[in-house]
Input
Amino acid sequence: MILTGAVALLLIAFSPLGRQLIIPLEDRYGLQTINQLQGQKIDGIIVLGGTVHMYVSDQRGVPSIVSGAERIIEAVKLANKFPKARILLAGGPNTIGTNPTPDAVVVKQLMVDMGVEAQRIEVEGRSKNTWQNAIFAKEMAKPKAGENWLLITSAYHMPRAMGCFARAGFKTSAYPVDYQTGGEASRYAPFYYALDGVTITDTAAKEWLGLLVYWASGRTNALFPSPNEKGPNKKSPNEKSPN
Output
């Protein structure tokens, strides 16, 4: 048993397993850049939470980023590029038993510090998971037919996020950021640091499990959402009381 566990740990830590698991997630929705959006009308920008270390931010009194800082950086760049676009930050406290400052509130402070006008930023600070992000963001945004909303989140999280927003009836355009791999060119590359392999494998496994659970519970419009999926196709048991 010890030998089996040690071999499994070595495989996870140094083999390309983590890349094999996460690359299909990252590549499901194509990379977009600001230049590719040139000439388009952008009505709104949605930024999903998950970047903030809420306890440290509260205890220190300054914003602390734990991961996914590209979500905030790209949001600021897009806000400057499209000054008429609404900015909606979706993310509440994702902890049990405590009530730290919501993720979106901390991100708003960061974006204001980076030069975005505070009055442009709308904060949805109730949601505790991706499904609630979609439900509460739609409730706040009240999107109109024909509007073009960008959805910003980490590339590996984008399939589940887009599936939730489609299931909620909120049409958005994927704007993935925070890539963890170099894509197909790095698919078979080993990891040189054990923690990198373990972290990426853990992230990918969590996301694949999340896709399965969300699809089974009716929170996404497909098992593995893609740009070709169309709207809701399964009745969700959580529409009235999202969990």
